[in-house]
């Protein structure tokens, strides 16, 4: 026993002695002692025994709770149903729900929305540095990012993706949002975006998922829409494509995903994600009732779709999604180019009322991120609702009420604006509310509500909005 600590020798001897005592313990003696107890002594004994066991259990429970925490484990599978057919798991071409749902899992953008709805960095390493004139955004990129095929992500991928979108030959639905923006590579892990005009919502454009240059640069515009890479996508997101299953008629039956082991953030926990595709909402409901799927992929807010209420295990969840509703001002309009006018229009809108009355409290106010510029950090505050301040601001800047029309007027400026939106019921109701508020402020508002496709072709692409 030489060389062992003395306390270890003593502890070992105690264990050995205790073991010998247990071996020689005569249980018949205990039974005899118990039989000699009176009724009261036996009741007291069992009460004390129960108390001792309860105390021991409570001690073990407290120790367990103090030294453990709930956390998801790796494993399990989930099958989700989506309405429609996936066409382009490609952020440059995607425009419909099945594609965009999968893209969020397979690809990453420079920034993303947190569960609380705030903008946080993703592929970017921190928030952008904004120039004093607010027209240049310099962004550092993370250095430990890999594509699903093992290649390294860098600034070339960012520049390639934006240039591809802006090229009319590729017919990207995202093109109108990027026409007034240029991007340049400063170094392998730094890029700079330059805007023609100041744009408050530009940061949200940076949630655009990025394509891998080394995959797509080999494919010209004539083959771009037909490439198999539009389904067998390679991204940097938490999940990678494992398999694409098609029916004999060519329709896609399912797509399965698996966690990407080389993901630059915490690895995804669900071992297998399966997506099955259906032609109608009724088909989705039937698939849920027959346990073919475990949930729907997406049901728009305000939809009256039957979710299969008779299914015993059905639970309905309302989850925040990285989507925002905004009014885009056309700065080519002289009236709207005036920041004071835009501020007054913003102050005349009660955003909380929009959320409660039109979105049924199923939305949150966006949190404006802090930006860095040449002067340091700066947070742009959301305008506070105050119709009185809005009116006062207009009057201080030369606008006065026309006694005949009761509208505000200013020499050289128009007091008539056009507001356009799609025919989705919530958007239409919100637009009607905005038109009423701005008319109360003193503007004449022409409200246009169109089907989404028509709105895109006639208003969004030619940038013929709000003015």
- Rounded to the nearest angstrom, the radius of gyration is 32 Å
Numbering strands along the chain, what is their spatial order in the largest sheet? 6-7-5-4-12-13
The SS-based structural class is: alpha/beta
Tally of individual domains: 3
Main sheet, how many strands, which sense, barrel? 6 strands, mixed
As for the CATH topology of the largest domain, it is D-Maltodextrin-Binding Protein, domain 2
The first-level CATH class name of the largest domain: Alpha Beta
Strand percentage lies at 15-25%
Can you name the CATH architecture of the largest domain? 3-Layer(aba) Sandwich
- The outline comes out as extended
Q: Give average pLDDT, whole number.
A: 84
The H-level CATH homologous superfamily of the largest domain, spelled out, is Periplasmic binding protein-like II
Question: Mind sketching the topology for me?
Answer:
Layout: H1 6-23, H2 27-35, H3 39-67, E1 75-83, H4 97-106, E2 111-113, E3 119-121, E4 129-130, E5 136-140, H5 155-166, H6 175-178, E6 181-187, E7 190-195, H7 202-205, H8 213-216, H9 221-224, E8 239-246, E9 252-259, E10 270-278, H10 281-289, E11 295-296, H11 339-347, H12 351-358, E12 370-373, E13 376-379, H13 387-396, E14 400-401, E15 408-409, E16 416-422, H14 425-441, E17 444-450, H15 452-460
Parallel strand pairs: 1-10, 1-11, 4-12, 16-17
Antiparallel strand pairs: 2-3, 4-5, 5-7, 6-7, 8-9, 9-10, 12-13, 14-15
Helix pairs in contact: 11-13
């Amino acid at each position: 026993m030489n060389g062992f600590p003395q306390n270890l020798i003593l502890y070992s001897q105690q264990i050995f002695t205790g073991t010998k005592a247990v071996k020689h313990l005569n249980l018949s003696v205990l039974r005899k002692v118990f039989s000699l107890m009176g009724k009261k002594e036996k009741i007291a004994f069992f009460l004390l025994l129960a108390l001792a066991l309860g105390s021991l259990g409570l001690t073990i429970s407290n120790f367990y709770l103090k030294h453990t925490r709930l956390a998801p484990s790796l494993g399990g599978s989930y099958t989700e149903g989506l309405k429609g057919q996936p066409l382009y798991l490609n952020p440059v071409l995607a425009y419909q729900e099945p594609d965009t749902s999968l893209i969020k899992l397979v690809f990453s953008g420079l920034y993303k929305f947190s569960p609380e709805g705030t903008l946080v960095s993703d592929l970017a390493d921190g928030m952008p540095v904004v120039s004093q004139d607010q027209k240049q955004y310099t962004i550092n990129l993370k250095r430990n990012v890999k594509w699903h095929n093992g290649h390294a992500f860098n600034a070339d991928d960012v520049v390639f993706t934006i240039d591809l979108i802006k090229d009319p030959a590729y017919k990207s639905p995202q093109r109108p949002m990027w026409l007034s923006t240029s991007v340049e590579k400063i170094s392998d892990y730094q890029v700079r975006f330059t805007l023609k005009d100041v744009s408050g919502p530009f940061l949200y454009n940076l949630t655009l998922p990025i394509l891998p240059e080394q995959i797509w640069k080999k494919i010209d515009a004539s083959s771009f829409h037909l490439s198999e890479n539009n389904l067998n996508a390679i991204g940097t997101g938490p999940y990678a494509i494992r398999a694409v299953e098609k029916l004999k008629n060519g329709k896609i039956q399912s797509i399965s995903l698996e966690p990407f082991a080389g993901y630059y953030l915490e690895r995804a926990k669900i071992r297998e994600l399966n997506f099955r595709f259906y032609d109608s909402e009724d088909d989705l409901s039937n698939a849920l009732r027959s346990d073919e799927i475990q949930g729907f992929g997406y049901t728009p807010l305000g939809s009256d779709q039957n979710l299969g209420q008779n299914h015993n295990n059905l639970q309905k969840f309302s989850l925040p999604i990285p989507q925002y509703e905004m009014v885009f001002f056309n700065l080519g309009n002289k009236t709207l180019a005036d920041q004071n006018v835009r501020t007054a229009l913003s102050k005349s809108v009660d955003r909380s009322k929009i959320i409660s009355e039109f979105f049924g409290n199923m939305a949150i106010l966006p949190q404006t991120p802090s930006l860095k510029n040449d002067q340091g950090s700066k947070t742009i505050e959301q305008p506070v609702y105050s119709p009185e301040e809005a009116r006062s601001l207009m009057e201080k800047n030369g606008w006065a009420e026309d006694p005949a029309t009761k509208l505000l007027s200013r020499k050289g400026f128009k007091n008539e604006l056009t507001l356009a939106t799609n025919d989705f019921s919530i958007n239409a109701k919100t637009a009607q509310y905005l038109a009423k508020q701005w008319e109360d402020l003193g503007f004449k508002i022409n409200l246009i509500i169109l089907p989404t496709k028509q709105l895109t072709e006639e208003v969004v692409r030619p940038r013929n909005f709000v003015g």
